[in-house]
């Protein structure tokens, strides 16, 4: 083990902090206990429960493979690949072939008895207990507790598939929200809502999350990882990102009311006692501000005049430069080639787009202060 | 330490073994000199040539016959990942990618020759832009920031080198640039405070020839990190300069810990390809606090500027400004916004936007145009020499940006939210920056790259998934076809057996468009090169 720790210490010393897979310093029996009690989410097939045969496999691994691939199959990158989850990538036949013949810098083991190969393949199918540390920076303000078991397996999946948008620590990134503060995550008691969003994606106008094909076990591990991040984030001193309701209280109510009725032109379409009555009870904080600036998903009306002179009206459902489609009052979808009809779109929400270049930041904050009084 | 020595000894052994390995193959062969003057039946690097103009001299498909364009073939990758790459075409074979995957496909029929599929377990799998080629070898970057060299004949691996350490936050999605015997390779990685690097590899041995660092090492006081290099640069053989765009500084939204202009982040830089030494740099977004990478294609144009012949570099930058530089010196010729921007107080004497500190992200938010995705992003613009139009997929957009002390000074260090955006194809007059025509592409934004041809056609896509052929002089639509998914690639074109093809990828499908096989016209004898 010492050898691995030397590498780990060197890596830390060099500032290589991010996703070091730390080996569990337990005995074989500890590893086996962990493997059998945890969800085998990192495997394409269910991980076999440890058996006496695995001991032979583990012994063979320790003797022949560990020198390069690490005591816990964690690999020694960049020179030697990890073998954790290798069975997701290669079949037993391919692995056997590789072990016999070798590849690149890996020597072949042509004389390895079949029994030993079988034991080794069984061992490679087990899941070690790995504990990745996620995205702690040198400044350490995002360091969380180490993860084990299911959450660790989920962490590996998360890094590959989710981290670009949601951040390596699930606390938000390039385009995706902070999942540790997500209402959906916080109110999803059994993980089913998270699983649904991951499986089905979100295709609303303002939420463009792709759908992912994960197994049930993989989804469970992702949920476990997100839960672990939620706990870690809640325990963090400061360091929270995202926008809280308290952040959006810098405006002046009277100035906002004046803007609403005057320069902002809001009163042309909206009324504090009509459509906006109680708006601050329905929305708050960032959600209210985003809706205030541009209410996504607002519907437009369209009237299509056919060549016969008949006019069909409804909610605009599709429009590109070739086709116009609507849903009529019965919910029936109809479309026409734009070459064959005349159409007129009524899209009051466009007034919000025209307003963007006219706002000062004070206008935004003042308007927000005023809207928050409409309870 | 013993282990490290052991590793080094082994690696040395591998290098020696490789030196004695197979020789370059005679077919599927691309000499670097061929990239200088690409033949009509090739598309030998990401941009199609070294200029980055994404303009073809092919004329078989023209404004008179384009309405007869139809599907020649479609190739299904059967992968959930969207195709974001530009194919290479060499000796009748196309090579294109998604993360961890390469396909070699017959350019005439669309049938697969081989598929490289090597899943990696680390690094961002956000997208992949394509490959580079040198002689009979392909060069492929991986999500865990390796550079893999493969045999173009069958996709077998020759060697695999580390570009940068995935564990500290690097990844790679880009198509390397081959200049003579240099494979110039960049990285992504702005979730962490790490420096952007550009690394040149020996095409045969994979040995590192040089490394250029965009910023000082992490931890340097009052200094920025960042400046990733995730899009393919361009090259001027006369000046022997490689041009590259660099990404945003880190921490991303909190500029406090990195005062000043933060060179060379959000910059256009010129390097000597032999040494990797910086010849000049131009900061497109001084002290960026909005994630506006300046990695968009540095397009090289030789033409008159205000009556005088110039060697120019043009970039439509993510920050909303169109830049024309003298690419010999890096001096500004023109800086002008090409859509709504509200974050700069003006333009300084060197042609750089002057950031307004009040438009840095704040605890109570700032309304900013454009949004974080920017006025344009990685998909290529095109320069049409005949009309002098620089045509770009623009994204007018608005957003709100936040940062507060509790967000810290590492990685993202804040939050931002897009409010609204749309797609507009804009044809910019490079001498004035005036928008000669624009063509609405739909709500949200389109995202397709642009290709122009000598026959006066502009190919791109809209927000709904239509592939469009427009008249380059006025932007009017001449032909379209629905592809089922917005196009995330930049189109390419080539001519094989006297038939011109246009390739667009959308979703997981690569589409090849051509005139009907029985099409007979004067153009079929065209043998122009592009």
The amount of beta strand of chain B, in percent, is 35-45%
Number of strands of chain B: 39
End-to-end gap of chain B: 54 Å
Largest sheet of chain B: 6 strands, antiparallel
- Tally of separate domains of chain B: 1
Q: Based on the structure given, which CATH architecture of the largest domain in chain A is correct?
A: Orthogonal Bundle
Overall geometric form of chain B:
globular
The average pLDDT of chain A is: 78
Q: Got a strand count of chain A?
A: 9
How would you sum up this structure, described in words?
The complex is a heterodimer of chains A (375) and B (530). Chain A has 375 residues and is an alpha+beta fold. Chain A has helices at 2-13, 28-37, 52-64, 66-69, 86-89, 92-101, 114-125, 149-161, 163-166, 183-187, 192-200, 216-235, 253-261, 279-282, 285-293, 350-355, 361-371, and strands spanning 21-23, 130-132, 202-204, 207-209, 301-305, 311-319, 323-327, 333-337, 342-346. Chain B has 530 residues and is mainly β. Chain B has one domain (25-50, 70-109, 132-525): Methanol Dehydrogenase, Chain A, CATH 2.140.10. In chain B, the strands form ten sheets. In chain B, strands 27, 28, 29, 30, 31 and 32 form a six-stranded antiparallel β-sheet that branches. Chain B is globular. Residues 1-26 and 522-530 of chain B have low confidence and may be disordered. At the A-B interface, helix 1, helix 8, helix 15 and helix 17 of A face helix 1, strand 30, strand 31 and strand 32 of B.
How is the secondary structure organized here?
The complex is a heterodimer of chains A (375) and B (530).
Chain A: H1 2-13, E1 21-23, H2 28-37, H3 52-64, H4 66-69, H5 86-89, H6 92-101, H7 114-125, E2 130-132, H8 149-161, H9 163-166, H10 183-187, H11 192-200, E3 202-204, E4 207-209, H12 216-235, H13 253-261, H14 279-282, H15 285-293, E5 301-305, E6 311-319, E7 323-327, E8 333-337, E9 342-346, H16 350-355, H17 361-371
Helix pairs in contact in A: 3-7, 8-12, 13-17
Chain B: H1 2-19, H2 32-36, E1 55-56, E2 70-76, E3 88-90, E4 93-98, E5 101-106, E6 112-117, E7 132-134, E8 137-141, E9 146-151, E10 157-162, E11 177-179, E12 182-186, E13 197-201, E14 208-213, E15 225-226, E16 234-236, E17 241-245, E18 249-250, E19 267-271, E20 278-283, E21 299-305, E22 308-316, E23 321-326, E24 332-337, E25 344-347, E26 353-355, E27 366-368, E28 382-384, E29 389-394, E30 397-402, E31 415-429, E32 435-443, E33 451-453, E34 457-461, E35 466-471, E36 477-482, E37 492-496, E38 499-506, E39 509-514
Parallel strand pairs in B: 1-33
Antiparallel strand pairs in B: 2-39, 3-4, 4-5, 5-6, 7-8, 8-9, 9-10, 11-12, 12-13, 13-14, 15-18, 16-17, 17-19, 19-20, 21-22, 22-23, 23-24, 25-26, 27-30, 28-29, 29-31, 30-31, 31-32, 33-34, 34-35, 35-36, 37-38, 38-39
């Amino acid at each position: 083990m010492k050898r691995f720790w030397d590498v780990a210490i060197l890596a830390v010393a060099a500032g290589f902090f991010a996703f070091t897979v730390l080996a569990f310093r337990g005995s074989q029996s500890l590893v086996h206990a962990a493997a059998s009690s945890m969800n085998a989410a990192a495997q394409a097939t269910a991980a076999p429960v440890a058996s006496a045969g695995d001991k032979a496999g583990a012994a063979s691994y320790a003797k022949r493979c560990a020198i390069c691939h690490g005591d816990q199959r964690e690999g020694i990158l960049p020179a030697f690949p990890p073998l954790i989850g290798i069975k997701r990538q290669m079949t037993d036949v391919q692995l056997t072939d590789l072990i016999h013949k070798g590849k690149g810098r890996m020597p072949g083991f042509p004389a390895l008895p079949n029994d030993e190969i079988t034991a080794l393949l069984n061992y490679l199918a087990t899941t070690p207990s790995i504990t990745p540390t996620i995205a702690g920076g040198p400044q350490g303000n995002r360091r969380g507790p180490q993860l084990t078991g299911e959450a660790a397996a989920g962490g590996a999946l998360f890094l590959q598939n989710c981290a670009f948008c949601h951040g390596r620590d699930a606390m938000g990134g390039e385009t995706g929200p902070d999942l540790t503060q997500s209402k959906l995550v916080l109110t999803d008691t059994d993980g089913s809502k998270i699983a649904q969003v991951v499986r089905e994606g979100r295709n609303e106008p303002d939420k463009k999350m792709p759908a992912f094909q994960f197994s049930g076990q993989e989804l469970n591990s992702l949920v476990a990882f997100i839960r672990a991040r939620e706990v870690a984030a809640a325990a963090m001193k400061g360091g929270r990102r995202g926008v809280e309701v308290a952040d959006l209280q810098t405006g002046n109510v009277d100035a906002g009311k004046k803007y609403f009725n005057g320069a902002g032109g809001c009163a042309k379409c909206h009324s504090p006692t009509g459509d906006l009555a109680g708006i601050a009870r329905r929305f708050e904080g960032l959600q209210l501000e985003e809706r205030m600036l541009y209410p996504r998903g607002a519907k437009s009306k369209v009237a299509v005049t056919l060549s016969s002179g008949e006019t069909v009206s409804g909610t605009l459902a599709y429009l590109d430069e070739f086709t116009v489609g609507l849903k009529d009052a019965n919910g029936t979808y109809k479309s026409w080639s734009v070459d064959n009809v005349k159409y007129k779109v009524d899209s009051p929400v466009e007034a919000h787009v025209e307003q963007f270049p006219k706002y000062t930041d004070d206008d935004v904050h003042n308007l927000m202060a005023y809207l928050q009084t409409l309870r | 330490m013993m282990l490290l020595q052991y590793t080094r000894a082994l690696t040395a052994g591998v290098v020696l073994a490789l030196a004695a390995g197979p020789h370059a193959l005679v077919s599927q062969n691309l000499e670097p000199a061929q990239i200088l003057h690409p033949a009509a039946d090739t598309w030998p690097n990401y941009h199609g040539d070294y200029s980055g103009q994404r303009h073809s001299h092919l004329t078989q498909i023209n404004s008179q016959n384009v309405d007869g364009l139809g599907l020649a073939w479609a190739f299904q990758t059967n992968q959930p990942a969207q195709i974001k790459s530009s194919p290479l075409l060499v000796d009748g074979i196309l090579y294109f990618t998604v993360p961890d995957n390469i396909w070699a496909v017959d350019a005439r029929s669309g049938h697969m020759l081989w598929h490289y599929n090597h899943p990696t377990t680390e690094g961002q799998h956000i997208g992949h832009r394509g490959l580079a080629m040198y002689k009979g070898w392909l060069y492929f970057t991986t999500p865990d920031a390796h550079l893999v060299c493969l045999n173009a004949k069958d996709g077998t691996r020759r060697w695999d080198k580390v570009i940068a350490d995935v564990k500290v936050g690097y990844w790679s999605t880009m198509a390397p640039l081959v200049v003579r015997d240099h494979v110039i390779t960049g990285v992504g990685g702005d979730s962490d405070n790490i420096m952007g690097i550009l690394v040149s590899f020996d095409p045969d041995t994979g040995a590192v020839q040089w490394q250029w660092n965009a910023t000082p090492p992490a931890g340097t006081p009052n200094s920025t990190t960042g400046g990733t290099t995730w899009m393919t640069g361009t090259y001027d053989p006369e000046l022997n300069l490689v041009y590259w765009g660099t990404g945003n500084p880190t921490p991303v939204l909190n500029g406090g810990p990195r005062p000043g202009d933060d060179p060379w982040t959000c910059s256009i830089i010129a390097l000597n390809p032999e040494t990797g030494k910086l010849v000049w740099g131009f900061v497109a977004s001084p002290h960026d606090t909005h994630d506006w990478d300046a990695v968009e294609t540095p397009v090289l144009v030789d033409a008159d500027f205000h009556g005088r012949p110039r060697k120019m570099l043009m970039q439509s930058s993510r920050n909303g400004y169109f830049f024309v530089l003298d690419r010999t010196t890096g001096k500004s010729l023109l800086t002008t916004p090409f859509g709504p921007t509200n974050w700069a107080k003006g333009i300084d004497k060197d042609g750089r936007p002057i950031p307004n500190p009040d438009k840095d992200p704040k605890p109570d938010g700032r309304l900013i145009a454009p949004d974080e995705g920017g006025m344009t992003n990685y998909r290529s613009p095109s320069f049409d020499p005949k009309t002098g139009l620089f045509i770009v997929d623009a994204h007018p957009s608005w957003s709100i940006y936040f940062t507060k002390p509790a967000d810290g000074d590492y990685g993202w260090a804040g939050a931002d939210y897009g409010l609204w955006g749309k797609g507009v194809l804009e044809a910019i007059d490079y001498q004035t920056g005036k928008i000669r025509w624009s063509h609405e592409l739909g709500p949200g934004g389109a995202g397709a790259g642009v290709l122009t041809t000598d026959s006066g056609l502009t190919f791109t896509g809209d927000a709904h998934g239509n592939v469009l052929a427009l008249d380059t002089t006025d932007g009017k639509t001449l032909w379209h076809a629905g592809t089922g998914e917005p196009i995330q690639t930049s189109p390419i074109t080539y001519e094989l057996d006297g038939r011109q093809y246009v390739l667009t990828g959308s979703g997981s499908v690569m589409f090849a468009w051509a005139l009907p096989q029985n099409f007979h016209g004067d153009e079929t004898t065209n043998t122009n090169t592009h």
